[in-house]
Amino acid sequence: MRGAVIYAPGDVRFENLDDPKIIKPTDAVIRTVATCVCGSDLWPYRGAEPVDEPHPMGHEYVGIVEEVGSEVAGVRPGQFVVGSFATSDNTCANCLNGWQSNCLNREFMGTCQAEYVRIPNAHGTLVATDEHPDGEMVPGLLAVSDVMGTGWYAALAAEVKPGSTAVVVGDGAVGLCGVIAAKELGAERIIAMSRHESRQKLALEFGATDIVTERGEEGIVGVKELTNGIGADSVLECVGTPESMRQALHSARPGGNVGFVGVPHEVALDGQELFFSQVGLRGGPAPVRRYLPDLIDRVLSGRINPGKVFDLTLPLEQVAEGYKAMDERRAIKALLKP
Amino acid sequence: MRGAVIYAPGDVRFENLDDPKIIKPTDAVIRTVATCVCGSDLWPYRGAEPVDEPHPMGHEYVGIVEEVGSEVAGVRPGQFVVGSFATSDNTCANCLNGWQSNCLNREFMGTCQAEYVRIPNAHGTLVATDEHPDGEMVPGLLAVSDVMGTGWYAALAAEVKPGSTAVVVGDGAVGLCGVIAAKELGAERIIAMSRHESRQKLALEFGATDIVTERGEEGIVGVKELTNGIGADSVLECVGTPESMRQALHSARPGGNVGFVGVPHEVALDGQELFFSQVGLRGGPAPVRRYLPDLIDRVLSGRINPGKVFDLTLPLEQVAEGYKAMDERRAIKALLKP
Hints:
Two copies of one chain form a homodimer. The first copy, chain A, contains twelve helices and 17 strands. The first copy, chain A, is of the alpha/beta class. The first copy, chain A, has two domains: 2-146 and 287-337, Quinone Oxidoreductase, Chain A, domain 1 (Alpha-Beta Complex), CATH 3.90.180; 150-283, Rossmann fold (3-Layer(aba) Sandwich). The mean pLDDT of chain A is 97. In chain A, helix 12 links the parallel strand 16 and strand 17 (334-337). The N and C termini of chain A lie close together (10 Å). In chain A, the strands form three sheets. In chain A, strands 3, 5, 6, 7, 8, 16 and 17 form a seven-stranded mixed β-sheet that branches. In chain A, strands 11-10-9-12-13-15 form a six-stranded parallel β-sheet, with helices on both faces. In chain A, strands 2-1-4 form a three-stranded antiparallel β-sheet, covered by helices on one side. Chains A, B: Its cofactor is Zn(2+). Chains A, B: Keywords: Metal-binding, Oxidoreductase, Zinc. Chains A, B: Residues 10-336 form the Enoyl reductase (ER) domain.
């Protein structure tokens, strides 16, 4: 089969690779229907994370089950499935608590920009749809496997409630899905922070009520002006830089909440500042598995359409162009079709 | 009148001071019935916070209203009152959200180890009891004004729920009150971390089910052994050092919560570590005013007895001995009577 391999920052190649096989009895192998490039894939692509040796890439996927191991009871060959970027057995203590992204047997996916993918912990990771979805539903279901699930978690971690005010820091695919999540969870006012016209437009379409284009101190002032001078009830941090975290923490009101889902890079928090802010903080890799059945329903019923974050669709063999377009911010998110 | 003044680390004196007066129409002046020495008073006493110039001390109090300003409607002279260490108007946006400790007109108390005290924002700060309580109720009511209210907040910030497992880091008065709070909020298992026999005994009396005496890595292992290997649902951090915060964060399970109420001193948090732990974190000065009516009821009904944290009672004029006894850990907490 063929798939993407990163060799160095800026150097992603599409190559012949060994076909994935069942290794453990809890594995499945799927034929990829769609995959994509994630904002977090850009960290190594931009050299912000080391690339020690060439390795496959990609952790978002929907596909058709090809083969299952002897202990996989929940899904069967031929089914259309959606999974999470973090695999989970769905039976350990953390999974039973609803934190499948911290499953004691977790393996992070990382080979999904390929024609076939091995899925560890398949029974506890994959959710099959009742029937094969129409092609137009595929982008939305693919979004659910990571960015929509992550935006959903950000909104829950930020404790968005009916009638509340939410701020979304970051206008990438996760931030835009965060707007959808805040809307679905009943936020009355949703302030999207964005400087890019096309992303502002999508944020407004997804339910944002206000746009703040400023950053830094001016951005904080902009949010305060819209929130009674005290800040927002909930803030979704969807970037992961020191600047975005600062923006998020200072945009929340005393007693408000920040959900942070951008993987933090060189972010340090001052304990005393956090203390006096009284802001609640929760982050992490989203327990997408917990949300999959609900989010799949919302997509298939047409209630939400997170697939709109894909503004570029390419054949999988052009994966390198997908990275390039996202790196240069020509695309919000690139969908790849084998 | 007479009251305590700190001159330098280790140097607290009992002196003649000007009688407090009504300055703003929202002030009250109370005659102190009881006050005490707080763990946080030990920071400057031990030189861990600077003492730039001599200043009065103390922020915990119960008393009898002597005089009220023209705009104070809620309390009247002659009433027995309990207040918080952070005054609040109880009408601003933060107060209405329940975060009175971040009142937009907040003034922190700091002159309470004295015979009379001026209370700013008296209307929104003081809660009067229906009648003058018996003397035996005074220690419990005094505890409510800070340590019991703070322990309560720690348990709520840590999201203690019925049937959950809670860890309390710190065996000072706040930690011990945190045990009471965890018990009242329904925790099934309460693990108190303590190396001091007298404090262990009180923790067990207050509802702790297990004691962990180790600290550092061994303390973390000790908690994990008692919590299914994954950590506790809720952790109450009641110290404020880098070591205690580390102990707290590593004692919580993925998706668990840490409520931190020890004022952090030189505590820095690594964003990425916090991210992957998925632990929720909320701290700050407790919004004691929110809890006062409920906690006063629990004390007066005999349901809780946080007054037991006072294991030393001194005449106010011996305030210096109160500091010394607490500094040397001869006393958990010193109650002072004018």
